[in-house]
Amino acid sequence: MNKRLLVLLVLELVAILTFSAGFFPQKSVLQGDAEFNYQPEAHRGISPKFDKMVLVVIDALRSDFVFQKDMSQFQFVHKLLNKGHAWGYTAYSNPPTVTLPRLKGITTGSTPNFLDAILNVAEDDVSSNLKEQDSWLRQFHMHQKKIKFYGDDTWLKLFPPDFFDETDGTNSFFVSDFEEVDLNVTRHLPQQLQSQDSWDVLILHYLGLDHIGHKGGAFSSFMPPKHREMDSVIEQIYNAVDENTLICVMGDHGMNDLGNHGGSSAGETSAALVFISKLLGKYEKPLAQQGKNIPLASNSPEYNYLTKVNQIDFVPTIATLFNFPIPKNSIGVLVPDFLKLLSAEDAKTKLIDNYHQLLSISGESPKEFDDSDAFFGEMRAIQSELAKTATDYNYPLLGIGLLTLLIVSLVAFFSAWTSFSSSFGLLLLLGTSLLLSFSTFGSSFVEEEHQIWWWLTIALVGSSYIKAPHELTDHLTILTLLRLIRGWNNSGQKFVYEYTLHDLLKQYYHVEWLLITATIFTVQFQGRAKGFFAFQYSFLVSVLCLVYKATWSIVNNEQVPAWLQHVCLSSYSIVNGIHKNEVNLSNALVPMARLFFQVTAAVIAVEVTRHQLKPNGQRFFEEIHGHVSTLLILQTSSANIPQFLAFHILSRKITSLWLRRKWSFPVLMTVSLVLQNLTFFQFGNTNSIATVSLTNAYNGVSENYNIYVVGALMCVSNYAPSIYWSLSCLKTLFLTSTQPKWKIFLDSRLPSFLFYCLFGCFLLGSCVILRYHLFIWSVFSPKLCYYVSWNLFMNAVVAWLFEGTIVALY
Amino acid sequence: MPPKKRVAPKKTVSFSDDENMMRARQLNSKKHQADIYGPPVYVKKSLLTVPVHLIALLYYYIKLSEDFDNVRLLYGLIPMQIAYLAAQFNRSTVYGHKILRLKLSLVPISLGAALLLTLPCMLIIVLMGAPVRMLLKETWLLAAHCCFLAFPAVYSVFNCDFKVGIFKKYYISIAIGCWVSCIVIPLDWDRDWQQWPTPLIVGAYTGAFVGYSLCPYL
Fold this sequence. Notes:
Chain A is α/β, with parallel strands linked by helices.
């Protein structure tokens, strides 16, 4: 039985990974380079409207950052827009709205597949390379144009080095830096603008704005200065180039108000797109820009400002203006306004060429239209049809994965059936699993999964109270704590409450930091009687954690009470032996976090050794849990930290109820599962890629970072509450242990394993059945990714590996 | 947004507005208990307890009223519940081997108790997930509906000398009705009837209907 479970676990992971490999395949792309589709000779006679292009990509530049009065500080661009030297658009960027897939869209004109969103994170990946795929960069390169590139090194990952004459890549993963990433790009500008003969295409990709968004959201106080900085860059370029140069300013995607992106909300998909050239001033402004004063005072909740286009329309537009063939996989439709720049005959040639190029992808036969509007209508229709076309699924892999998982689930079910002593526990577990399983068939239930967990929590508390009506106070306390946790953050997509505890604490930061201090000390000390030595190092760890969190907040312009700022400054001046006025807090962050990690590791090592020499019984779990919780607190954003205080009390109450009511272990493990998931969502997480938080993934990481360290820290920070509950319930389980430790451990792994298996069968099934559903890429695929990460990280790494190690040392 | 609600069974005693009467009755009941220790209080298994008026009210609420007016529904509910108590429920409640007559003096008292119970009930609804700073009036209306749905049971608790245990089932059934109905709230259908607290009111009525019909058999 025991070894069988381990084999089952491995099989289950293999099954899920096989399924994922079949579900997220590469998109089929047309190979080869594009030719003119319609009357190739006619094109040769057309002269390009521009000689040179400067592309300024400002990461996460949402449309209102450029066009809306209250948000935008791009004063120079506004002037150009009003003068008609700049034409502005709101560009719809297809989800997933992360940099790598969007760059693919902007350069090749194709719609991205979901896999790209994940590969966006994997650094040394080669499969997303665009070396062989046709793009406007490739076309420029083939036409012997010289391309220079400065900025986000995602471009260098996408395109082979021989495309570029000169490059200087900056890394997009270190998000806490707002200044240097952009200065590294801008410092090349004066020289390049002086020697304009040395390039035909200049690409600049600025990351600072996106970093500010990730750190502080769309309304961050760092935003306006960044806008002005970007504005001055545009002004510098505009003043230096002549009218044969086209400047394109665009965001690769937008952001939501929290500064995250990846999903398909209006904010994330609405990027700004501005074409700037002195030549444009000679032609009539686009219709939406006429008679308007930009920045616009009106506020559009859908972020629709000026004309709405598709971001991929940029590709055929560029191809038309520079007179080269439209890249082969492009499904863009050229922006109608730019036909004004061509003579009537050339415009018609270009339009029909674009139409034929779209037909070459959709495989339809050409129709004849009289006027250009009818052409555009038909092209838009083809475009939206093509954008929907799903990728090819690898059905054999899907089948193998699903079948293996079904078999594993059946075996797990029978083991549970025979080994669970209490039928109530089994019933509870099966009820929970099946309820969640059925919910995977509704896209809104996947989006609002936290509601289901809350629903289950209420049922658990209610049924527990009905079974033990005399424990009224305990149940009321538990319910109150749970309600506080629920009110802490908004989760899901549908409901947004203004008065979350998270926001209230941010507002009343004195209370917030008092609570944080209380939480850190309570969780570390756990109310245990300590020896003198143990007291000292616990105190040291707590202070380190508190000072680090406070310093981090000070550096990131959050409000921190004066007494705490004083504590931070004093502790640094003591540690470094310098005067308080000379302390530079932002330089102290990395060493501070490293010191914390080292001290925690040392303390845990001491505890383990002590336990080996002189077994400590239950105290061992308490100690480990205390130290790990402090580590989890360090990996949690400040306003969420007091939740751990609620967890602490809640876990005490549950333990005492468990001891008095003599629940069976499947019941406790179901409670553990429910709490893991509930708290995961109430920390502000959702089933959308957009809420994966990188904020705490760089604690103690210097600029030459290691991707695996950052990945591990990211997992820990996103799953912090779940790890807490997993460990807490293990601790409770060993409180009344009479059986051998390995039997308890393995028995307790079965319930959650059964849950993951059953839930997995239904989720994979629903992904297969709903594979042509409208929301497959925005709802179901992210859910599948989360499911894989729950399995790999929470189940395999935390519940088996980490807790198994603790039990082995016990 | 999901708020579930449950009427606190034991609250009945603590929120009674007449402490003296309560103590007197408890003293009385001790005397009774000596001779009738078997099943002192129960509700007869009979079709008479089926609360048909709740179906009628639900029909009115869902089909006839166009705007899901909770206040008007409440005005309809209260007299109908009194009538139901007098004509059906009280006639089926057996206390000490006999059916007690309807005590008219107790009716306003238990109505008052039900009204007072709306506050703890509202607190519990909030604890179970209702929003705190918004939609408070709606939450209170939901609490009022639940409490007046429980009114026959509240009356019987008074009438039967606070033998709370037997009537707990009725509160629980209303609570379960509310809880189950919450499942429609997250759906993205954007219908009027998904607005807070409409689905819960429908759930409470359904739960009460099932409860009053089936609880005697449990």
